[in-house]
Amino acid sequence: MDIMLGQSYTGYDLVKELRSCATYAECEVIFISALDSSEDKLLAYGCGGDDYISKPVDVNELLEKLKRVEVRISERALLKEQFEMASDTAFCSMQQANELGTLISFFTDSLDVIEIEELFENIRRYYGNAGVRCSCEFRVANTYHQFPKQSTTDLEREILELGRVAKRIVPFGSNMLFNSRFCSMLVKGMPVHDELLMGRARDNFAILLTIVDSRIEFIEEQLEKEHIRKKAIEELKSQLEGDFSTIKALCEEQDNQIAKFISKLSQDIQLKVITLGLDEEQEAALMSLIDEAQEVVEEAQGISFVIEDKLFRITQQLRIIEQPK
């Protein structure tokens, strides 16, 4: 670039215009001028020049400066490439961190889940955030549960059934089937056109399967414990009902025997009173003792009714415990 282009327009002005244009913003500019003062060189550099050669031009100097220009262009291209790679790496790292955060959120959200319906809703929400759709089969306590119940097609159900004996990951087209002991997940709409994203999605979904598998195993253990508890309560209930019936029968038999004994005793005493020659006062005192004994027996019989009521209440409480929540 020469400096003296005209009276009202200089090389400085032209370089400023070049620098303001995105197309030429990174081009290399070498000023060549008969002007040789430090002030002229500073002006050239200030308006956007990269180097300066004074006239008359030394060809060797010019070639040397052009070599430096070539080096700067190469370095700039390398830096740009490194920057793009760093940007891609940073973006990929951010995506991976976000995906990991989503997995962690799914894990924490599922820690308290004890119903397979709620577990599937968490899975569907996770896959929805990942931009794909899914169908699932849970295998709990030798029972198969497929979700979503209303929108899963017959073909998808058949594929989920095949997952019971298939290998862990089965890809086909834009779909992928993930299988474990307790679960099969049919994921639809995988990003097959982005190899990097596809690889991360496959790994993340495999981790998700492990989390789901662990949760279903826990749910199955809880169901087994609940089954054992109900069975124990049923056995206890049956045993107690038998014991209660025996206690009730014994109490009734005891009450009957005591009542018969007191009745017979009263009759025997009344017959003996006639032959004992007791006066009226003695006879009244003796009959009073018999009446008191009768009252004691009646009180004892009242206790039997209380025992029977308590046993009935215990039986009712067992029935309440036995009922599902």
What helical percentage do the residues reach? 55-70%
Number of helices: 7
Give the biggest sheet: 5 strands, antiparallel
Q: What spatial order of strands do you see in the largest sheet?
A: 4-3-7-6-5
Query: What is the average per-residue confidence, as pLDDT, rounded to a whole number?
Result: 84
Structural class: alpha+beta
Sheet-strand content, in percent, reads 5-15%
C-alpha geometry: rod-shaped
SSE succession: HEHEHHEEHEEEHH
Which stretches are poorly predicted, pLDDT < 50 over at least 5 residues?
Answer: none
Instruction: Please tally the β strands and state the result.
Output: 7
Rounded to the nearest angstrom, the radius of gyration is 49 Å
Distance between the termini: 89 Å
Helix and strand arrangement:
Blueprint (H helix, E strand, L loop, with lengths): L10 H10 L9 E4 L4 H9 L4 E4 L4 H51 L6 H14 L3 E8 L2 E5 L6 H9 L6 E4 L2 E5 L3 E6 L6 H82 L3 H43 L3
Parallel strand pairs: 1-2
Antiparallel strand pairs: 3-4, 3-7, 5-6, 6-7
Helix pairs in contact: 3-6, 6-7
